[in-house]
Amino acid sequence: MNQHIIDEKIRTLFDQGYCIIESVHDAAATEHQEQLLYAEWARRGKQLLSGFGLGIHPLLELVPDIAPYFDCPAVNIVLEAAFQDHPKLCHAGARIANEDSALNIGWHHHYNWNADLVYGRHKIERVVVNFYVKGVSPSLGSLWTIPRRVGEPICPPLDEPNQEWPGQIEVSVPPGSAVILDTALYHTATRGHAPGMRYHWGGHYQGWSNHRPHGEDMDMEHIFSNLALLARYPGLKRLIVSDD
Ligand SMILES: O=C(O)CCC(=O)C(=O)O
Ligand SMILES: [Fe+2]
């Protein structure tokens, strides 16, 4: 990814609260990701995917073979530019949904810290990255956002989390794409118009020099101690093990 594109992604992330990195994983990779997530659903008896669907946490313990896909240069280079620091992976999870899932999972954000301090800030301290295995679209189930600039207050336009919200933007991306969301961004996901499985997996990231704990932080010991895996995927290692 050239510097011009990185700059454009950062500008978009700061100006609207999210940006899209299209098609970072090819068909073979997304097929493998689907198999891995499907197998976890099957292991749990293919439970009905009602409500939120199936949340898989902690992902790296339950589905360790997905770990190498976090070694994603196109995403990690944008995160590095956004934080002006090496990104650290703090949380990993996945969600599987289908036609049985909620019409709207409910508007929420992942800021978790003192939201009053967001007003007037210049930096994004932490992001969520969602990798969409089959993409997102009205038929598969969309992602929705309320765009916001980096220093705007976190302010819900309505109190009802399961309603349509004024200003909502429908996000569609092709298979194997990543969406980087500021944790301060209100977002939700809706059920698709067509039957079928919808998969995403991903994580939370913050700069290594930002030691602020967050309610969704996870213990990465399981992956931290897998030295053979980290040696094989240096890009993954940089997300898990500090340079110091
Ligand atoms: O399914 C999506 O597109 C987003 C889900 C989400 O917001 C979450 O798991 O926190
Ligand atoms: Fe979310």
List keywords for this structure.
244 residues, alpha+beta, Jelly Rolls, six-stranded antiparallel sheet, three-stranded antiparallel sheet, globular, binds 2-oxoglutaric acid, binds fe (ii) ion
Ordered list of secondary-structure elements with their pairings:
Elements: H1 3-16, E1 18-21, H2 27-43, E2 54-56, H3 59-62, H4 73-83, E3 87-97, E4 126-132, E5 143-145, E6 169-171, E7 177-182, E8 187-189, E9 198-207, H5 221-224, H6 227-232, H7 234-240
Antiparallel strand pairs: 1-7, 2-3, 3-9, 4-7, 4-9, 5-6, 5-8
Helix pairs in contact: 1-4
This protein binds 2-oxoglutaric acid (AKG) and fe (ii) ion.
2-oxoglutaric acid binds next to strand 8.
Explain what the structure shows.
Helix content is 26%, strand content 20%. The model has no long low-confidence stretch (mean pLDDT 97). By secondary structure, the chain is an alpha+beta fold. It has a single domain (3-23, 39-240), classed as Jelly Rolls. A six-stranded antiparallel β-sheet has the order 1-7-4-9-3-2. Strands 6-5-8 form a three-stranded antiparallel β-sheet, with no helix packed on it. The chain is built from seven helices and nine strands; from the N terminus they run H-E-H-E-H-H-E-E-E-E-E-E-E-H-H-H. Helix 1 packs across helix 4. The structure holds 2-oxoglutaric acid (AKG) and fe (ii) ion.
CA gyration radius, whole angstroms:
17 Å
CATH-derived topology: Jelly Rolls
CATH homolog superfamily: q2cbj1_9rhob like domain
**DSSP summary, beta strand count:** 9
Globally, the shape reads globular
Domains, number: 1
Summarize the structure.
The chain has helices at 3-16, 27-43, 59-62, 73-83, 221-224, 227-232, 234-240; strands spanning 18-21, 54-56, 87-97, 126-132, 143-145, 169-171, 177-182, 187-189, 198-207. The protein is of the alpha+beta class.
